[in-house]
Amino acid sequence: MGTSRAPDRPGTPAALGRRGEDLAGVYLRRQGLIVLERNWRCREGELDVLATDGRTLIVCEVKTRSGRGYGSPAEAVTRDKRNRIRGLALRWLAARRVAWCPMRFDVIAIDHPPGGPPRLRHVVGAF
């Protein structure tokens, strides 16, 4: 089940998140991965980026922060969030009628300070 989104207003947390996901997609392609889908949604939630290296399904959670007031981007991927992402990945497999495939769960953490360049950190096999 996919849904369309209204455009994000510049300067909002949603726009910052969208920018981070755009950067993550470009980064993953430059690493030689194929981005299969972005922002896949179902009733239970959303997966940010699904990619593959040709053998493994790579489920990427993208977290972008403009400052450290709420901690580092990677710290936002809590145990509950990790469990939800695992369940959503199984829902994605079922929705795409993929019986089974090797999976890996990564986090792409982006610090994007106002007026400064973004800094991306890719945690491979984060959980």
Automatic annotation (TrEMBL):
Superkingdom of source: Bacteria
GO MF assignments: nucleic acid binding
Segments forming a coiled coil: none
Pfam families the record matches: UPF0102 (PF02021)
Entry's family note: Belongs to the UPF0102 family.
Protein name: UPF0102 protein B1813_19955
